[in-house]
Structure formats: structure tokens, C-alpha cells
Specification:
Strands 1, 2, 3, 4, 5, 6, 7 and 8 form an eight-stranded mixed sheet that branches. Helices cover 27% and strands 24% of the residues. With 162 residues, it is of the alpha/beta class. The longest helix is centred in the first third of the chain and has 12 residues.
């Protein structure tokens, strides 16, 4: 069976970036038996702490897409984040906006593998974990990585987001 095109795009992006997991092996997208639409569900399926899940949240920042990779252990402080990055309006994007800018559905948005690069902020709280897990393009796909790798492969900026 062929992988979903989104999963293929994410795996190709990981390979193109020479992405590595915590052991130093190439990062590979893994398919879980069932879709995981929340950080808690992903953590349960993987047997890890919810803080180790890197949620990929798309916001509309003054009309432009902003990808915030945040620890599953907390919520984004949108007012504080907007002030820290100098935007006047920061709000959760609609499912259509998310798909238009990532090509991926909410619940499966990966940190990479999008049609165009997105401005990306990476939650500094993720640095506390040896290994973190991110979505792989569809709600049942995930891949292992590290905080340092996540910054590198996304071109992201470290940020306090909670």
C-alpha cells in the first residue's frame, strides 16, 4: 500500500533535510494504528509524556500563516505571543486556511512538508525533552525528532509561547 501523499511529502522533506531522531538515526514517519487528533492521544499511543508531543498549530498572524510548534503540555498565550512577535492580530486559523497553507488537515499538520516554507516558532519548553514527536502529515502519522533538529529542519525560531 502506498503511503498518503502528505506522509510521502513529510518523509521526503525529512530525508532532504537529513533529519535525525534522538539516537542519531534518520527520522522516519511512523503510522499509528489509529488517528490521534490530540497531544494526549498521541502521547498515549506512543507511551510518552504529553509534553514530548510537538503540536503543530497554525495561526493567522495579521493575515499571514504562522506555524507554532508547542509542547502538548500547555496552551499558547496568543496575546503574549502576538505582542512578542509584533503582530496586532493573532488567531487560530480555520481548517481551510490551514489546508491552503500546509496541504495538511488539522490534527495531522507536520512541522515540514508544506507547499511553501512557513514562518515557524518552536516552543522552548520542548528543549527539556531528549526526544519529541511531531505529526507526519495525517492524523495517524508521527515522527521522532529532537528540539535541536526541529529548529534546524524547520528554520524555526525558539520562542516562549505559553
Amino acid at each position: 500500500m502506498q503511503p498518503h501523499p502528505n506522509v510521502r511529502a513529510v518523509q521526503d522533506a525529512l530525508a532532504g533535510a537529513d533529519a535525525r531522531d534522538a539516537s542519531g538515526a534518520p527520522s522516519a514517519v511512523r503510522l499509528l494504528p489509529e488517528a490521534v487528533h490530540t497531544a494526549a492521544a498521541a502521547a498515549d499511543a506512543l507511551g510518552v509524556g504529553v509534553g514530548q508531543i510537538a503540536n503543530s498549530l497554525i495561526f493567522e498572524a495579521d493575515g499571514a500563516p504562522l506555524l507554532v510548534l508547542t509542547s502538548g503540555a500547555h496552551r499558547v498565550d496568543t496575546a503574549g505571543l502576538a505582542a512578542s512577535i509584533g503582530v496586532t492580530r493573532l488567531r487560530r486559523a480555520t481548517p481551510e486556511f490551514v489546508r491552503d497553507h500546509t496541504g495538511q488537515p488539522i490534527g495531522g499538520v507536520a512541522p515540514l512538508g508544506h507547499p511553501r516554507p512557513l514562518r515557524t516558532l518552536v516552543d522552548t519548553a520542548l528543549a527539556a525533552y531528549h526526544e519529541i514527536w511531531a505529526a507526519g502529515g495525517v492524523p495517524q502519522a508521527v515522527f521522532p525528532t529532537t528540539y535541536t533538529e526541529l529548529l534546524r529542519i524547520t528554520g524555526g525560531t525558539p520562542a516562549e509561547v505559553a
